[in-house]
Amino acid sequence: MASTTTTPKCATCDKIESDSGIPLKRCAQCQTTAYCSRGCQRAHWKTHKQVCATSNTAPGASTSTSLPKGLTIAIDKPFHRLNSKTWMHNRPEEDVYKLLIDTYRFRMEDNFNLEGARNKESIYGGAADGRIGFVRFLGLAESKTGLLPSWWSTDKGKECIALGLGRDNGWSSLGQKVAKSGLIEHYGNPLMPMQLRLFGEQVYGRGPGGQSGEKIIMMQMEAEDGDVISSVLDVSSIFGR
After folding, report:
1. pLDDT single digits (tens) 167-177
2. In the chain, how long is the greatest CA-to-CA distance?
């Protein structure tokens, strides 16, 4: 019986992978239409745009807000929210607490790996837990107008700290280190470490290693809009870890 498998080809120029010599990349939005280059994708976008939008709203379609892992809900277009500095908004309290703790923990990990910094108020500097450093981190976040949700208060900050210090806190322990690989596994999202780094940059005023994440946000916003191919913009390892 003859095989019915269809060989993927570029939607614009009809090249298959063996013709182009490089793997075809799929549209970031629908994950079905393939292209051999960014130029071909841009040329085909006006034609593909309506089909792409339809496929993304179809029942069972995969979207950025489906099947959250490690959180109560997932948010749509997280890099757009990072750009508008509303990444922590419209989330349940517990999710905000977890993400704040992980932003701090991952920043301490980055500071150690990229700069050799051992903050004395963190477990990297010998502290039993990172509560003092985390309190300072929360103070910085609170000082940035609009960065935290409108419901945030001093009491909410205490609840967040308590989560990180609780005996049954499981994942969200201020006494435990966190690495990029662990974050990806916990949240089931290879872009979560990048999002945490970018939010941390908004809190601290600089990225890990002194690098700016502005261009990363712009590129990922394009990917979220379907203007570029997501697999081409695999910059989750831009900081080397």
Report:
1. 666 899 999 99
2. 69
Q: Across the strands, what pairs with 16?
A: 9
CA 54 to chain centre: 25
Helices (H), the chain: 17-20, 38-57, 78-83, 93-115, 131-143, 154-165, 180-187, 192-204, 214-224
Task: Name the residue among 149, 67, 150, 66 with its Cα closest to residue 100.
Answer: 149
Positive or negative, the CA dihedral 170, 175, 176, 180 is positive
pLDDT tens for each residue of 128-144: 888 999 999 999 999 99
Q: Are 73 and 95 in contact (CB under 8 A)?
A: yes
pTM for the model stands at 0.70
- Domain spans in the chain, listed from the N-terminal domain onward: 17-57, 78-226
Terminal Cα distance for the chain, rounded? 48
Q: Residue 73: what residue type?
A: I
Write phi, then psi, for 216 (nearest 5 degrees).
-65, -45
Q: Are 213 and 207 in contact (CB under 8 A)?
A: yes
Residue 135, amino acid: V
Amino acid occupying residue 214: E
Closest CA to 141 of 120, 160, 162, 122: 160
* DSSP letter for each residue of 131-183: HHHHHHHHHHHHHSTTTS-TT--HHHHHHHHHHHH-TT-TT--TTS---HHHH
How many Å apart are CA 122 and CA 19, to the nearest integer? 53
pLDDT surpassing 80 at residue 201: yes
The token duo for 235 is 């910059």
